[in-house]
Hints:
The protein is mostly beta strands.
Amino acid sequence: MKVSDIRAQAYAMPLTSPAYSRGPFRFIDREFLIVTYRTDPDRLRALVPEPLEIDVDNPLVKYEFIRMPDSSGFGNYTETGQVIPVTFEGRKGLYVHSMYLDLHAPTAGGRELWGFPKKMATPTLAVDGDTLTGELRYGKSLVATASMGFKHSRVDARQAQQSLEAPGFLLKIVPHVDGSPRILELVEYRCIDVQVKGAWSGPVGLQLNSHALAPVADLPVREIVSGTHILADLTLDLGKVVYDYLAPVGEQTQRQSMTRTPAKKVLEHA
């Protein structure tokens, strides 16, 4: 294979059979169970990377279960994890702290493209009688359980849409062949073309158990604030680098990739 062919064809590993398709990625009937809770502010501060900032007076975490039955390029899978309300240069958003999912393609794609902190595990989200229930198992261990009364009260669709459209932040780490960091960046991404099909609230519960390799309990539940159930279609857009941790001190600049193609244009030619 010629060098020119490699450059033209390479976008993911392995070269001749990539683990995932080219993005962006459209999700149909994406279902969320989101439990917002207060945690220990000192532990939260220790886990959120600068230059992101947290509200120490209101230290919130959102524990999410997400069911994705129809995901272009990725297929049918479920994931769960923690996102943390933050601010970056005065703009509000969410830092993705942990994610656990049950399919290789979105695990590889999420890590390689954006820097999502994805690990393989066994999350589930399903209706059990009159209760929407999410569970995370790592191996045989039950790590997290969330429950919510099924569709007790409607939530304003616009409010739900705004929550899904909020910018997300990721810490992307790619090692060099000698084990040192080759890429160490803060990445911003957004969900676009969001269409909320329904949103509800209700009584909610959350239990986090200690686990060595799925340490979600390191951000303990001090008080549950709310629970939200959302059904929506959306597109996960490609990202941009907003902070380079390896840039020389004093030369830190914000930059956006000049090689990305806007999501809408890609979709038009898909």
